[in-house]
Amino acid sequence: EELPPVVTEGDVVEVTATIGDAPDTRVSQPEDNIYKFEANDRIHIVGWTGDWEDYNKPWEDAADTWWNDAVSTYNGYKWKTEPYMCWQNGDGLQHHFLAWWPENFVKSDQNLTDIDITLTGDYNKDDILVAKWNGTRPDDNTLKLEFEHLLSRFDVHLIFRSEYTEVSNISIETNLRN
């Protein structure tokens, strides 16, 4: 039996997370067009209040910390977040959350607007999920994160006209930004 949180339950952010539709992903696919997290998957969540564009920048100033900065682990049934995240009190106060998987993809004190990505070529390993949430505190305190695939695979399709009839060996190198 887990001990109750040290903060009042009325302020604790409860997390749920789902994954949007996309083919070829590392996460489990128990049936067609259904994708889900696996037990022991971990997501990182940061949160702030105010305007969406007025986010914290701990990569510029270490004292500029996030209102919420936590890791949430899925046990196959429910997400457990450490440390507990709390809603900030205030009428009509806008809360914003940004979450990513895999949890160790980037640290929350790194520049989240400029992240280097090294692809392995294996879409099962290169999958990156991101979720954004904006709004006022819900009545049930549940943060419903719906993840989208930021990058799970990069396909290049080449079509040749009649001047190349038997192409068999092609190499492509590219740099992806933003």
What structural class results from the helix and strand content? mainly beta
Number of helices: 1
Instruction: Give the low-confidence spans.
Output: none
Lateral strand order in the biggest sheet: 1-9-8-7-4-5-6
Strand content: 25-35%
Shape: elongated
- The value of Rg in angstroms is 20 Å
Distance between termini?
45 Å
Task: Estimate percent helicity.
Answer: under 10%
Q: Please summarize the sheet with the most strands.
A: 7 strands, mixed
Q: What is the ordering of alpha helices and beta strands?
A: EEEEEEEHEE
Mean pLDDT: 82
Number of strands: 9
Q: How would you sum up this structure, described in words?
A:
This protein is mostly beta strands and 178 residues long. 2% of the residues lie in helices and 32% in strands. It contains one helix and nine strands; from the N terminus they run βββββββαββ. It has one helix spanning 123-126, and strands at residues 14-19, 28-31, 34-36, 42-49, 68-74, 79-82, 95-101, 128-135, 142-151. It has a seven-stranded mixed sheet with strand order 1-9-8-7-4-5-6, with no helix packed on it. A two-stranded antiparallel ribbon has the order 2-3. Strand 8 (128-135) and strand 9 form a beta hairpin. The longest helix is centred in the C-terminal third of the chain and has 4 residues, at 123-126. The radius of gyration is 20 Å and the shape is elongated. The N and C termini lie far apart (45 Å). The mean pLDDT is 82.
